[in-house]
Amino acid sequence: MARTSNVFARVEPEVKEQAEAVLNQLGIPMSNAVGMFLRQVVLQRGIPFEVKLPSEAPLAYGSLTKEQFNAEINKGMADIENGRVYSADEIEQKC
Question: What's the DSSP call for residue 63?
């Protein structure tokens, strides 16, 4: 058996539980998944997936003028009036 080394990582409990659920369905122990990730880092010579900022930054209330704020509120009201809404359950399913 190959020598091993320990890796300690802090993650949010919910993320860990969700990842464990997926990995259990795949039959892959968490330690093997972490090892696969690290092997891919070595092979790819970097993070093995795209890491980038979103093309648009989310709006920050403090950065808006009164006119911009009112325009955003009006867009939201128009969405509601035209039925472009999502229930909390739909949002929960997308996360």
Answer: G
Distant-in-sequence contacts of 61-65, Cβ < 8 A, 24+ apart: none
**Residues 7-24: tens digit of each pLDDT:** 999 999 999 999 999 999
CB 68 within 8 A of CB 74: no
Instruction: Quote the CA–CA distance of 77 and 71 in Å, as a whole number.
Output: 10
CA 27/CA 25 separation, integer angstroms = 5
Does the pTM of the predicted model rise above 0.85?
no
Q: What radius of gyration, in Å, describes the C-alpha atoms of the chain?
A: 21
pLDDT at 60: 86
How far apart, in whole angstroms, are the C-alpha atoms of residue 35 and residue 63?
43
